[in-house]
Inverse folding.
C-alpha cells in the first residue's frame, strides 16, 4: 500500500501522468467515433469450445485498443467481442469498465448481445458508476451495466472511449493478458509529436510477448501490434505482482535525454533529483527554529527522531483527503508549497512534502540524513537497466544513527515510527547526493513488528453452542492498513468492517458484536477490537464424545493454494509469523457426554499457537 505522491516538487508523475503540456494547445475539437461492431459471424455463433482453452467459460474473440495522443483531445477507443461458452460464462454479461476520475472519463459506451440464433439485443439500459477502491483520497471508479438476454452460445460486444484530460499526456499500456483466453487482438498508438516547447519523447518496453511479436512503428508514426492466442491469466495465492507477470507493452513519455549507458542515466537522474530536493529542503535556519519547538536539547537521539516523526505526522496530510472538485480547488486557490518552510508555516502538505519536511528537521537537529527515492514493489519489480526514472516513485528518509541505517516515511499516514509501508521494504532505491547518488536496498521488517493477535475466552454449552469474548489486536502495519481502509468512514461503518473481518476467518456462521471503541487515529497504538461471539452448533455429539472443528480461525486457510497446478512462482510480500491464537474455553472433559450437566464433567482448556516464519 503505497503513499500517493504529488508531482509538485519532484518531477515524478502521479496517476500515471507523464507531463502536463506547458502551453494550451488551441484548435477545433474533431468529432470522432469509437470502434464499430463487427458483422455477425456464423462460425463464431456455432462455436461451442476453444481447443486452446479447454473448459473455458468464455473467450475473447477479438479485442481492439486504439490510442490517439494528440495532446488536445487525447483518447483511447476500446472494443471487446466475447463468446459465452458455459453457464458460468454468462457472468461476463455484467460489464465493468474501470477508470481514474483524475485522468479522464469513460464516454460513448455502446453494447449489444447476439443471441445463439443470430438475432441482436441492443443495450439501452442504465449505466451506473461505482467506486471499486478508495484510499488516500484517490478514487478508482468503474462504469457498470448488464447486457440483455445473455445465454450460453451468445456473443457479447461492447465499445467505449476513455476521454483523457485535455492538454495533457499520459502513459499508455497495452495489457495483453486477461482472465479470459484471447483469440485475436489489435493495438495501435498515435504518439504525441513534440516541439521545442514540449520536447517529449516516447519510449516503449515490453515483457512476455509471443515469439516473433513486438510493436512496430510505421512511416506515419503510428505504433501497431497484432497478436493471437493469448493464454488466460490465472490469479493465484501468494503470487508476485500481476503487472510484473502479464504480457504487456508500456509506453512512457519523457523529457529525459536518451542514454545508452544505465549508470550514466541514473547518475544524471540522481543529480537532477538531488538539486530539486536540496532546493526544497534548504531552509536550515527556519528548520532549526522549528526543531527547538519539538525537542529538548537533552533528549537522547532516538527520542529526538521519534518526537520529530510524531510532530510531522500530526500535520495535515492532503494526500489522504478526499479529492476536491476543480471548482473547490479554484475557490481555495491552494498553491503548492515551494519549500519546507512554507509547509511548516501552512500546517499542511502532501505525503511527499511531509517526508521531505522530516528530512529537513532531522538534519537541523544534527543528524546525518539523506533523501531517497525507492521503487515500490506493489505492482512491479524494479530493473535499473530499463532506465525508467518514473519507477523510482516513493520518497523516504535515511538516517544514520550509531552505525545503523534507519528508514522513515512519515508522509505515509498511520505508519509507525521505524517502519516503512510494506511496498517500500526490501526494494532498491537511490540515496541522493550531489554526485548523483548511491544505490541502496531498504530493509525488511521483522514479522513480530506487524501482527494480528487473537485471544478468545469461550464457553461451550451442553447444546454445542460456543459463546464468549474475543479480542483481536492489530499492531504495526496490520493496524495501519485497517486505519487507512476506514479513514473516511463513520463509527457505524468501522464497526461493521471489524465485525465482518473477523467473521471471514471463522469457518461457521458466527454472531459478532463489537463492544469497545477502537483507536482509529494513532499510528503507534495497537488497533484493538473486543467482540462478543456466539456460534450455534459449534460442537456435535458423537456418542460419548463431542466433535469440534480442528481450526477456529481457519476459513481463509481453506482457500489457500487450491489450484491443482501452480502457474506462477510463490511470493510472500512480507515475512509472516503464524497468527497467535489464544483460546481459553470451558469444554466437556474427556469421555463425558455432551449433554452432561455435572460441573465435574467440564474442564478449562487453553491453547496458544507457536510462531513460525515464512
Amino acid at each position: 500500500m503505497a503513499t500517493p505522491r504529488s508531482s509538485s516538487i519532484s518531477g515524478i508523475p502521479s496517476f500515471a501522468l507523464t507531463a502536463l503540456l506547458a502551453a494550451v494547445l488551441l484548435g477545433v475539437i474533431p468529432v470522432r467515433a469509437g470502434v464499430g461492431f463487427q458483422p455477425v459471424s456464423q462460425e463464431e455463433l456455432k462455436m461451442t469450445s476453444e481447443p486452446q482453452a479447454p473448459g473455458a467459460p468464455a473467450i475473447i474473440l477479438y479485442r481492439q485498443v486504439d490510442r490517439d495522443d494528440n495532446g488536445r483531445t487525447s483518447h483511447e477507443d476500446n472494443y471487446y467481442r466475447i463468446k459465452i461458452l458455459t453457464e458460468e460464462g454468462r457472468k461476463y454479461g455484467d460489464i465493468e469498465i474501470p477508470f481514474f476520475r483524475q485522468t479522464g472519463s469513460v464516454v460513448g459506451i455502446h453494447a449489444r448481445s447476439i443471441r445463439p440464433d443470430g438475432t441482436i439485443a441492443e443495450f439501452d439500459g442504465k449505466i451506473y458508476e461505482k467506486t471499486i477502491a478508495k484510499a488516500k483520497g484517490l478514487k478508482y471508479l468503474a462504469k457498470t451495466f448488464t447486457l440483455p438476454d445473455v445465454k450460453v452460445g451468445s456473443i457479447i460486444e461492447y465499445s467505449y472511449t476513455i476521454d483523457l484530460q485535455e492538454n495533457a499526456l499520459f502513459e499508455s499500456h497495452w495489457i495483453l493478458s486477461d482472465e479470459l483466453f484471447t483469440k485475436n487482438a489489435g493495438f495501435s498508438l498515435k504518439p504525441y509529436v513534440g516541439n521545442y516547447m514540449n520536447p517529449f519523447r516516447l519510449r516503449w518496453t515490453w515483457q512476455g510477448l509471443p515469439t516473433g511479436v513486438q510493436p512496430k512503428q510505421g512511416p506515419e508514426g503510428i505504433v501497431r501490434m497484432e497478436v493471437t492466442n493469448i493464454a488466460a491469466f490465472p490469479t493465484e495465492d501468494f503470487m508476485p505482482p500481476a503487472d510484473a507477470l502479464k504480457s504487456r507493452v508500456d509506453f512512457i513519455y519523457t523529457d529525459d535525454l536518451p542514454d545508452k549507458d544505465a549508470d550514466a542515466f541514473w547518475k544524471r537522474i540522481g543529480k537532477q533529483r538531488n538539486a530539486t530536493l536540496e532546493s526544497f529542503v534548504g531552509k536550515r535556519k527556519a528548520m532549526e527554529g522549528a526543531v527547538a519547538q519539538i525537542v529538548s536539547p537533552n533528549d537522547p537521539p532516538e527520542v529526538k527522531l521519534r518526537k520529530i516523526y510524531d510532530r510531522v505526522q500530526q500535520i495535515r496530510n492532503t494526500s489522504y483527503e478526499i479529492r476536491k472538485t476543480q471548482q473547490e480547488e479554484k475557490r481555495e486557490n491552494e498553491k503548492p508549497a515551494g519549500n519546507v518552510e512554507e509547509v511548516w508555516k501552512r500546517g499542511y502538505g502532501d505525503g511527499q512534502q511531509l517526508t521531505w519536511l522530516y528530512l529537513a528537521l532531522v538534519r537541523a537537529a544534527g543528524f546525518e540524513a539523506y533523501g531517497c527515492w525507492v521503487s515500490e514493489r506493489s505492482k512491479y519489480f524494479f530493473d535499473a537497466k530499463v532506465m525508467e526514472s518514473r519507477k523510482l516513485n516513493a520518497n523516504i528518509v535515511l538516517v544514520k544513527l550509531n552505525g545503523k541505517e534507519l528508514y522513515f516515511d512519515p508522509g505515509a499516514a498511520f505508519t509507525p515510527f521505524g517502519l516503512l509501508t510494506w511496498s517500500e521494504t526490501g526494494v532498491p532505491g537511490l540515496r541522493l547526493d550531489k554526485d548523483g547518488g548511491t544505490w541502496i536496498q531498504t530493509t525488511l521488517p521483522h514479522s513480530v513488528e506487524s501482527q494480528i493477535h487473537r485471544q478468545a475466552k469461550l464457553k461451550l454449552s451442553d447444546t454445542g453452542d460456543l459463546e464468549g469474548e474475543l479480542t483481536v489486536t492489530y499492531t504495526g502495519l496490520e493496524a495501519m492498513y485497517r486505519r487507512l481502509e476506514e479513514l473516511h468512514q463513520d463509527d457505524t461503518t468501522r464497526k461493521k468492517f471489524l465485525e465482518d473481518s473477523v467473521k471471514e476467518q471463522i469457518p461457521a456462521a458466527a454472531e459478532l458484536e463489537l463492544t469497545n471503541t477502537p483507536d482509529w487515529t494513532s499510528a503507534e497504538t495497537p488497533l484493538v477490537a473486543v467482540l462478543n461471539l456466539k456460534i450455534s452448533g459449534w460442537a456435535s455429539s458423537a456418542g460419548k464424545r463431542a466433535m469440534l472443528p480442528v481450526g477456529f480461525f481457519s476459513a481463509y486457510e481453506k482457500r489457500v493454494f487450491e489450484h491443482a497446478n501452480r502457474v506462477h512462482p510463490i511470493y510472500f510480500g512480507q515475512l509472516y509469523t503464524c497468527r497467535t491464537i489464544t483460546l481459553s474455553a470451558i469444554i466437556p472433559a474427556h469421555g463425558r457426554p455432551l449433554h452432561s450437566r455435572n460441573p465435574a464433567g467440564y474442564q478449562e482448556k487453553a491453547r496458544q499457537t507457536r510462531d513460525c516464519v515464512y
About this structure: The longest helix spans residues 262-281.
